[in-house]
Write a structure and sequence with these properties.
There is one protein chain. This protein is mainly α. It has five helices and four strands; from the N terminus they run αααββββαα. Helix 1 crosses helix 2 and helix 2 packs parallel to helix 3. It starts with a helix and ends in a 10-residue tail after the last helix.
Length: about 190
């Protein structure tokens, strides 16, 4: 316990970022991830989070005065933090070993509610970033046509477990069925 903790602190403590990370909690968390990866301790997966996306009202409140709205600012925090992390990973020489998965635990409705926000939706989106990732949209591009909505929500067309299965099999070289408890198709993004 304590001996292993001291090793982690010693190795991660030597880390020097090669970019300036934004001054946000998400960026600071990703910088800590970079330090752990750089320490070469055999870390296979790390998780960080950013709250605040439960925007049921006034989702883009300040947009009408020319600035970014609340939701836009949250997305900018994610974009800036991931950009700094990945740029640092490239400069540190470990970008080829990482894949970043960005997802939300709930989707949002495609239509604005009466409080200038959106409510919990059925489908969501996942973004995958990395040198081994083949860019593009995987799955059917969602339609906003009323006849294609599921109870006024975007319908799910790709099971999120297929994304996990792909990463487990093709990036971590782990049998996805052992982890997920069932077989799910893999996608061709990696």
């Amino acid at each position: 316990g304590l001996e292993q903790s001291a090793i982690v602190q010693e190795r991660a403590g030597k880390y020097q970022p090669k970019v300036t990370y934004p001054k946000t909690s998400l960026a600071e968390s990703l910088q800590q991830c970079a330090a752990l990866i750089s320490a070469d301790l055999g870390v296979r997966a790390l998780s960080v989070g950013l709250g605040g996306f439960d925007t049921h009202s006034k989702q883009n409140m300040s947009r009408e005065v020319g600035g970014l709205g609340f939701h836009d600012n949250l997305l900018k925090q994610v974009s800036d933090a991931v950009s700094a992390f990945y740029t640092d990973a490239e400069a540190q020489g470990f970008a080829d070993r990482i894949v970043v998965l960005i997802f939300s635990e709930f989707g949002r409705t495609p239509n604005e509610n009466g409080d200038q926000g959106t409510d919990h939706g059925y489908a969501s989106v996942m973004f995958v970033v990395g040198g081994s990732v083949k860019g593009g949209v995987y799955g059917e591009y969602p339609s906003l046509d009323q006849s294609k909505l599921f109870i006024d929500n975007l319908d799910v067309n790709t099971d999120f477990r297929s994304v996990y299965s792909t990463l487990l099999a093709n990036h971590l070289s782990v049998d996805p069925e052992q982890v997920l408890g069932s077989k799910f198709s893999t996608l061709s993004f990696i």
